[in-house]
């Protein structure tokens, strides 16, 4: 019996070694000239965003070489095309895919093969934890909840916070990021109340908030819901003059401020108005592709510029590129874009609306 177990163990060991050899990076599989692999979906539902991501990257790369691969917005197809990109075409770097559902399996293959992957649009926060070859680009929009949490704890010194949020993936994701940062900084989320997006009847949530008697409330709401929420705050007398409502960028739109300023005594919100305005990029994109770029195009462009910056600084192969990216996570290929979230927190501006006047706080 022991003899057969030993034979079985040797077979498994040799099999694992073979697998490891198959996925280990071979220098001869990599092109001598740095080559980028762009992974996007052409599946009808995501085709427009996929084409924007692709064209943003191509614009950023300029004359540098690139191959484009269709993930089909399907995890299995994404694995097949990234294998082709890495093992047959010898790409130096992967940019993409557009979606988290395909970025995760692609990241696993890239990590095992030792090929750096730059994700400009996937929303899965844990993506870089897959391994040292996997990187995620961030913009101020990715860190506005974190920046607001810093203000609540470090500047306003409010440590007990209630949350009212839309009962959907949008609201839950923002609430998760904000709450996690509040607790990391020593604060406490005392209550979380949900409302149905688009609903005009928030009586139950309003009474619950009033009973909670909290002077700091973070509200993650869709732009269209904010005026109704504000009026019901006043109708149910949820807060007094000492309470502060905290919110993200939607609360800072001038039309929205006009809708709620008579109902809420004090609102503090983030602003990203200085970001995303790159007239040179927009003009170049429009001129070359005859359409207005989306955020996906801009983030793809930023990822390509980071790749070019690395190559210009000697990152001529996969290993050198990974080393350069790891050593330069705080570098911004474009203003307000970086691989480090912490680098961007200070770029988010905080405003307040108090007694009908808008003022900058930081």
Automatic annotation (TrEMBL):
PANTHER family reported in the protein's UniProt record: LEUCINE-SPECIFIC-BINDING PROTEIN, PERIPLASMIC BINDING PROTEIN OF ABC TRANSPORTER FOR NATURAL AMINO ACIDS
Domain Leucine-binding protein: 68-336
Organism of derivation: candidate division WOR-3 bacterium JGI_Cruoil_03_44_89
Keyword vocabulary terms for this entry: Signal
Name of the protein this chain belongs to: Leucine-binding protein domain-containing protein
Family that this chain belongs to: Belongs to the leucine-binding protein family.
Pfam families: Peripla_BP_6
């Amino acid at each position: 019996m022991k003899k057969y177990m030993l034979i079985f163990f040797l077979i498994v060991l040799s099999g694992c070694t073979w697998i490891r050899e198959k996925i280990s990076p071979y220098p001869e599989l990599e092109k001598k000239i740095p080559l980028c692999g762009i992974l996007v979906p052409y599946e009808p539902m995501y085709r427009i965003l996929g084409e924007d991501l692709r064209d943003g990257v191509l614009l950023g790369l300029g004359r540098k070489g690139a191959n484009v691969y269709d993930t089909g917005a399907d995890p299995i197809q994404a694995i097949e095309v990234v294998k082709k990109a890495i093992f047959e075409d010898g790409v130096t770097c992967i940019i993409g895919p557009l979606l988290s559902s395909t970025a995760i399996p692609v990241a696993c293959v890239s990590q095992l093969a030792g090929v750096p992957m730059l994700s400009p649009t996937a929303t899965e926060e844990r993506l870089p934890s897959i391994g040292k070859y996997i990187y995620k680009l961030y913009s101020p929009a990715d860190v506005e909840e974190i920046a607001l949490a810093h203000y609540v704890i470090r500047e306003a010194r409010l440590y007990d916070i209630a949350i009212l949020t839309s009962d959907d993936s949008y609201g839950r994701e923002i609430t998760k990021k904000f709450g996690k940062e509040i607790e990391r900084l020593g604060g406490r989320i005392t209550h979380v109340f949900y409302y149905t997006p688009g609903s005009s009847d928030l009586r139950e949530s309003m009474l619950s908030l009033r009973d909670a008697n909290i002077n700091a409330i973070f509200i993650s709401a869709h732009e269209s819901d904010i005026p109704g929420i504000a009026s019901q705050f006043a109708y149910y007398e949820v807060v007094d003059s000492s309470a502060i409502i905290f919110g993200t960028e939607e609360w800072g739109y001038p039309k929205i401020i006009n809708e709620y300023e008579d109902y809420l005594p004090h609102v503090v919100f983030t602003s990203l108005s200085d970001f995303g305005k790159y007239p040179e990029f927009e003009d170049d994109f429009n001129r070359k592709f005859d359409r207005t770029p989306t955020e996906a195009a801009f983030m793809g462009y930023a990822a390509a510029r980071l790749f070019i910056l690395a190559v210009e600084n000697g990152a001529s192969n996969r290993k050198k590129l990974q080393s350069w990216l790891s050593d330069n996570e705080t570098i911004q290929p474009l203003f307000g874009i970086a691989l480090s979230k912490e680098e961007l927190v200070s770029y988010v501006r905080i405003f307040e609306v108090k007694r009908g006047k808008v003022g900058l706080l930081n």
